[in-house]
Amino acid sequence: DEIVAIAEKGGIIGLVTKSNWIKINGLHKGTTVNNYLDHFDHVINLVGIDHVGIGLDIGGANPPLGKYPHELSDESLFTQRFPELTGPTADHPMYTPGYPIENVHPVDLSPPYPKTINITRGLVARGYSDKDILKVLGGNFLRVFKKVWK
């Protein structure tokens, strides 16, 4: 209902890459870019290509252990900084202590550098046109920004 309401107002849904939100048991088992692209297909079929974009939300707050300074990759600090997104009290936790922190994002999109080229490759492999891929990669956001930031 929320996705449809956003689209009806001309908005865009930036699809996030959190494994636990992409696939059942995604955090435990890990996910791939194909699992992420399944969500694109679903939302595009629901509301159309003009209302979908990338919402990676990949940053330094949850890198794979050992890839960044200790204060950024320590599991206990992550759960302290983001209690609303972790543990048993979260409605849809993006990370639960005890699970591999490297599974927070799809393995083929994960930091240290987001591998966004794999999104493009996946969209091409699924038969999306160049025009539609450009919309998903940022064209839709640019269209809305131009409309609202006058």
The CATH architecture assignment turns out to be Alpha-Beta Barrel
- Quick one: how many beta strands? 2
Query: Biggest sheet: strands side by side, in what order?
Result: 1-2
How many structural domains are formed by the residues?
1
Would you state the CATH class?
Alpha Beta
Structural class: mainly alpha
Helical residues, percent: 40-55%
| Rg result | 16 Å
The main pleated sheet reads as: 2 strands, parallel
Alpha-carbon distance between the two ends: 29 Å
The name of the CATH topology is TIM Barrel
Organism: marine sediment metagenome
GO molecular function, one term: metallodipeptidase activity
Protein name: Membrane dipeptidase
Pfam family, one: Peptidase_M19
Features:
single chain; 150 residues; mainly alpha; TIM Barrel; two-stranded parallel sheet; 8 helices; 2 strands; globular; metallodipeptidase activity; Pept_M19
